[in-house]
Design brief:
By secondary structure, the protein is α/β, with parallel strands linked by helices. It contains seven helices and five strands. Helix 2 packs across helix 3 and helix 4 packs across helix 6.
Length: about 220
């Protein structure tokens, strides 16, 4: 939305995760929606602690922990993003402000407040957490910059790894299949950050894992 700074308040704490909510968004909600949001974030925290965190680390490896902030919990900011976005990771947050002036100096990801009540919020969280892991396993440890399409493809498989596509109808994967069918000739490796790009990399990696198992994902990262 063109903003460079927002204020936010810590609303929910899990064993491995913090949820901050943008103050402007929180203040726009009535009491019923605030309670609903808090309950949703508590559910997401539990899902992260018990499913996303252990399952992704078993396949992709660890994020940087305790990391730049010396805290084993990762930070999630619930903030208002463009409609299409589920969330994102800004790897600049992994650097000290002496190197990157606007760094938040945390292991951090961002989720779209405007989509937080959707059924796929867990999938968005799973997707973004893989990016944090890749940053540590590739960039922090070895100074490597991952090809964007490969990085995104692993994140696209993360919801399936966590079991969120087990019921196909209405799932994250079902959305990606629809996107692919609308754009079946989109390039696999030319990343333009369009929805069509996500469709093709998602289906390609689901094909690979179906044939070779999750070990192919592990060998890409570790």
């Amino acid at each position: 939305l063109g903003r460079t700074q927002v204020t936010a308040t810590l609303r929910v704490i899990g064993d491995k995760i913090y949820f901050y909510v943008e103050d402007d968004y929180w203040n726009s909600l009535n009491g019923t929606y605030r309670n609903a949001l808090r309950e949703k974030l508590e559910d997401l925290a539990d899902e992260f602690d018990t499913v996303i965190y252990p399952k992704e680390r078993s396949v992709f490896g660890s994020e940087w922990t305790p990391g730049i902030d010396g805290d084993e919990r990762i930070t999630v900011l619930i903030t208002q993003l463009i409609t299409e976005a589920g969330g994102y990771v800004n790897t600049y947050d992994e650097y000290p402000r002496s190197q990157v002036a606007n760094s938040n100096e945390r292991e951090m990801l961002y989720l779209n407040a405007n989509r937080i009540f959707e059924g796929n919020a867990e999938s968005f969280l799973a997707h973004e957490f893989q990016h944090l892991i890749t940053f540590y396993q590739k960039t922090k440890l070895f100074g490597l910059e991952e090809e964007v399409w490969l990085n995104e493809a692993r994140s696209e498989y993360a919801p399936t790894l966590c079991g969120y596509n087990d019921v196909y109808s209405g799932s994250y994967l079902a959305d990606r299949v629809d996107i692919f069918l609308d754009n079946p000739s989109d390039s696999l490796t030319e990343w333009k950050n369009k929805l069509a790009d996500y469709g093709v990399v998602s289906l390609f990696f689901h094909y690979l894992v179906d044939h070779y198992g999750t070990e192919i994902l592990t060998r890409m990262v570790l």
